[in-house]
Amino acid sequence: xKLPITGGCCCSAVRYEISAEPLSGFNCHCRTCQKSVGxxxxxxxxxxxxxxxxxxxxxxxxxxAASGHIMYRGFCPECGSSLFGRNNTFTEVRPVAAxxxxxxxxxxxxxxxxxxxxxxxxxxxPLLPKFSGNFTN
Length: 137
Ligand SMILES: [Zn+2]
Ligand SMILES: [Zn+2]
Description:
Layout: E1 5-8, E2 15-18, E3 24-28, H1 31-37, E4 42-48, E5 52-55, E6 59-64, E7 70-75, E8 82-87, E9 93-97, E10 112-113
Parallel strand pairs: 3-10
Antiparallel strand pairs: 1-2, 2-5, 3-4, 4-9, 6-7, 7-8
The chain binds zinc ion (2 copies).
């Protein structure tokens, strides 16, 4: 994978660079992700927080996670694109929305999570492992 990986929002006010290989990729079908991104699921990569460099002013919206943690969802206040998240407890890794990459074709999801909340019209790759909730349940 060619580094750095770059991406940004619709209007380019917020841009980011990822300077290390992403750790993993997943599709989250939970209702909060559905609402947040306006789509049946959020396709995201976990990257090292220290490898994510953001430029431009973004806003965060705090959503409760099932774990009891808070997920701060970062978005562009100009165009509304959902870009990345920040967990108040697991601070070493951050999710980045794969569809906001400049080259989203490099994204490789390895699992579907929160499939218990998926919509009946949400088609999933049958080859990917499915989890009814988070990775472990
Ligand atoms: Zn924007
Ligand atoms: Zn989710």
